[in-house]
Automatic annotation (TrEMBL):
GO MF annotations in UniProt: hydrolase activity; isomerase activity; metal ion binding
Family in the record: Belongs to the FAH family.
Keyword RNA-binding applies: no
Name of this protein: Fumarylacetoacetate (FAA) hydrolase family protein
Superkingdom as given in the UniProt entry: Bacteria
Protein's GO biological process: carboxylic acid metabolic process
Lineage: Bacteria, Bacillati, Actinomycetota, Actinomycetes, Pseudonocardiales
Amino acid sequence: MRIGNLDGRLVLAARGGAVDVESASHGRFGSDPQEVFARWDEFSEWVRSLNHATLPVHPVEFDTLRSPVPRPDQLFAIGLNYRDHAAESGFELPQFPPVFTKFRGAITGPSGPITLPGHTVDWEVELVVVIGRTARDVDSAQAWDHVAGVTVGQDISERTVQTAGPAPQFSLGKSFPGFAPMGPWLVTVDELRAGGLDPDALKLSCSVNGELVQHGTTADMIFSVPALIATVSAVLPLEPGDVIFTGTPAGIGAARTPPRYLRPGDRLVSTIDGIGELCHHFVPAPGSQEM
């Protein structure tokens, strides 16, 4: 199953377009994409019961898709979760997942412009996990059972703000408007497996203006998705609709010599096998000097 947010309405991806959930369910499920996670098991059962051949399918334009998770109550992010990224950043491998948050106001969809608030804005392609069942003290062996699905994300970061001292401002530097793009679809684990993909070993990459700058596989995570869910749920409950950005592989701009950052006009494409891609372009802040 693939679900999406088409101009604010919950839809099911279908061959040739998308099915409007509120219409197809005769109002059993509403149009709000965020509300479906509170009824995820019921919704999944309903989707399995559908005769997809009889459903009306509407065309989908990529630029009308929004974040499939528009208003999570909790948005977690994991730092230094790939060995090569920890090495390029000059850190030893963490013994415990470094956890921070991105604020909800940073969320945007899979395409469109993102405003550059400064001169040191960086990219970080990431697998994003969305919770479908309340998870509290979950064992890693059962962790995937608590996941609604996965999507593509970018943990965009303004490095000057992020590293402003004396204590780093990770959450603030990573939460400017548009700095948490997600999409284009939320894909369930069974859908990935049906396509011959291992949810613990998904290839991910991103490019700037057509140049490949990051590539890797989630199999190289220091802390796997199940390990992250087990760790976080041991501290506090993860609720349906909560989001976890799971970390990025090597290739960020700040680690290059010299450092490379996003500029007005740059086009950033972020891809994960079996899920899809994000495509964004960057614009200067209104009234700013040419960057």
